[in-house]
Amino acid sequence: MPTVAPLDLDGHCLAAVFLEGVPHFALADGTVHRLDHGHKWTAVHDGLLCATVDQAGKTLLTGGEDGKVCRSGGDHAVEVVHEIGRKWISSVAAGPQGALAFATGKSAYARLADGKIKQFDHPRTVEGLAFAPKGLRFAVARYNGVTLHFPGTEGKPTELEWAGAHNSVTFSPNGEFLVTTMQENALHGWKLSDGRHMRMTGYPAKIKSFSWAPKGRWLASSGAPAAIVWPFQGKEGPMGKPPLELGTRGNTMVTAVAFHPTEEIVAVGYADGMVLAVRVADQKEILLKREGKGPISSMTWDKDDRRLAFGTETGDCGVIDIAG
């Protein structure tokens, strides 16, 4: 039976992650908590807005209401990577070889491995950022589409247009597809080789979480009373194919999803704090955590494939060990 090591915090958990095997929990108040031979915490920002793990899994990148982009790691040290003044850092993304991107207002910035920073301005507010799995290329989600930048060159950006507000963005692990969440209850995607559109609609609520299967064969998403899992095995992605609906629980909404690092098993978190693990192949379910104090807001598996860190909107956090 899975076991749960709880960590009862006070505040909205924006990111529950592992840094070199140690669970960390970044809260909206700007504190980062960790379970490292006891509960410890560090004040990183005066108000936290976004957080992500670097590609090596060693440090946490964060952006705050204080205009700072910070990097913090398992050694408890906090490095201010960049400070932009009295502006909110609304999005951060981790790239290859230590590169990173961050956004404030209508501007996106890429910080290259050598420390140089390039600024990219847009007509409308930057909502989300993501790096491609190969090469130094990053995507900017914005109103009416996505802009692809190549910060290592002087070439023109690529514009992918689709009417409406695009809030967050992700590349498929093979780099063939790009998908955004929208202000309307939908996902939108592009096949990058030819720009073909992919519409993924029918959600009853906004999609706040998505996660790719380890080889990119599936994309799981929240925003419904089940995890909506789209097939991406073919060259055309999910077009013409219905999604799977995993972990249906009446009218209880799914609020977070996280695919296992090596298996086609998805952790499904709900508005009532419950967490299930569901295997794609046969839709078999395993209860990982019973109902709690608030909606699941973030989940991440560790690299050993057996532990799942989770956080909620009310600070009900912890670590699930699926091996018991």
CATH homologous superfamily placement of one domain: YVTN repeat-like/Quinoprotein amine dehydrogenase
- The level of helicity is under 10%
* Topology-level CATH name of one domain: Methylamine Dehydrogenase, Chain H
Number of helices: 0
Instruction: Give the helix/strand class.
Output: mainly beta
Output the strand order for the largest sheet.
Answer: 14-15-16-17-18-19
* Unreliable segments of 5+ consecutive residues: none
- What is the average per-residue confidence, as pLDDT, rounded to a whole number? 95
Largest sheet: 6 strands, antiparallel
Please tell me what the overall shape is.
Answer: globular
What is the string of SSEs from the N terminus onward?
EEEEEEEEEEEEEEEEEEEEEEEEEEEEEE
Question: How many extended strands?
Answer: 30
CATH classification class of one domain:
Mainly Beta
CATH architecture of one domain: 7 Propeller
Radius of gyration, CA atoms, in whole angstroms: 19 Å
Protein name: WD40 repeat domain-containing protein
InterPro entries: Apc4-like_WD40_dom (IPR024977), Quinoprotein_ADH-like_sf (IPR011047), WD40/YVTN_repeat-like_dom_sf (IPR015943), WD40_rpt (IPR001680)
Structure notes:
Pfam families: ANAPC4_WD40 (PF12894). The protein is an all-beta fold and 324 residues long. The chain has a domain at 1-28 and 203-324: Methylamine Dehydrogenase, Chain H (7 Propeller). Helices cover 0% and strands 53% of the residues. The chain has no helices and 30 strands. The strands form seven sheets. The protein has a six-stranded antiparallel β-sheet with strand order 14-15-16-17-18-19, with no helix packed on it.
